[in-house]
# Entry
Amino acid sequence: MALKHKKGAVSDPDPDPHPDSKKRKRVGFASTEDTGIEPNDCINIFAVKTADQVGSTNCLQIEPIDLNHFFGQDGKIYGYNGLQIDVWLSMVSFHAYVDVSFQSKCEGGKGITDLDVPFKSIFGESLLDKEKFVQTFSEDHDYVRNIIADGEAVPLDSSMKYSNSRSDNKDPSIEVMRLGMQNANTGLLYSRLVSLVLLLVDGANPIDVTDPRWEIYVAVKRSPENGLSNSKVEMLGFATVYHFFYYPDASRMRIGQILVLPPFQSQGYGRLLLEAINSVAISKNAHDITVEEPSEYLQYLRACMDAVRLLSYEPINPAISSVISFLKENNLSKCTAKPSTGPPASLVDQVRQNLKINKKQFLRCWEVLIYMNLVHENQRCMENFRLLISDRVKGEILNTEDGVKDTGKEIVEVPNDYDSDMSYVMFRSERGEKGNLGMGKDGGDEAKQEEQLKQLVEEELEEISNVVKKVSSLIS
# Structure
């Protein structure tokens, strides 16, 4: 990591004529009291593919997540005036080079932050000085191609393809390779990729590369290079998957991380990785697929993909038609008993067995499919659907599963000097009374709770509507 003291450097008193320029350098200044510098205000990260891009800021800039948790307790950098940190991250070998420059150091009562520590925690052994970093573009030119040589190409199952969409005509130069952690080189690859996970995935933790139950799916693109017989191979993105044992002789596949590299985002490669994982789950007869703490966007993407798959799954059609007919012909607000509008248990199991969609994900897609088949001009039909969503949201707040009646039990904390762990009592509310829905501290403020419930329902309906719009565009 290079540190440079800019002796004659001063701040420019004139404002930047292009304040919105993405490539504009950001410089951090500590005040006299040294209140510290926010890392995201002085750190610029650039994705580079060639040696001549190293040192240049005229290349793709990566916007990392909040970097504060890498920098001590309060997440700030202390002891520098005019601090600027530029990071170049290779999209070829996944090494990194960090250049640190500042006007002066200052002791403002909180010491001087050791910048080596946080960058070592992010990049580890992949952090190189400039000379070695530049050399990697020639020495590790074929790094990705060599790594995936021992991998297994994943054939995409025909059930994964979207009707009348560009997914049916995939670029033959793009494929997904499956790499097992039993191969030591797979672990070394992940040790380089983990910096991208830490920088771009909020709350991510590195996987255990010593556990053979982990595997990596790598999306790559092959392209001819200067007439050479060996094609150039670029990594587009990757996903990590863990295999849990499922009694008696199956496994559950859990997606730990999925990341498309910054230069290739918004081009459908995340969907490609998910399709590859679905294909392996079906071919290996896994029990189902789950995702560890998915982001909102990943949930949206999975819902779109699985809804498309379910649309072409014929056994689901009679059940959906039955629910639609019920919503057209009945008024749910006047029903004395909660109607059953969810999928039959046998269908839930069929979907899990054939498509590897777990129950929770299927229920999410079930609402999408119902909404797609509703007659939106039918006011009763739409109001009934809204009530279905409201009942589901309320059930989640009450921490009850679909079809399980609320017992009316509540827990209330009671002061107790004897044992703080036993300072509560449980009681059952009187018949007809409603307990606190968990939407406000004041359990008696029903108007406030109803307003909160209404807002949550509107948010759920908007999410469903957005998925339906995307699904409709994929199948049209």
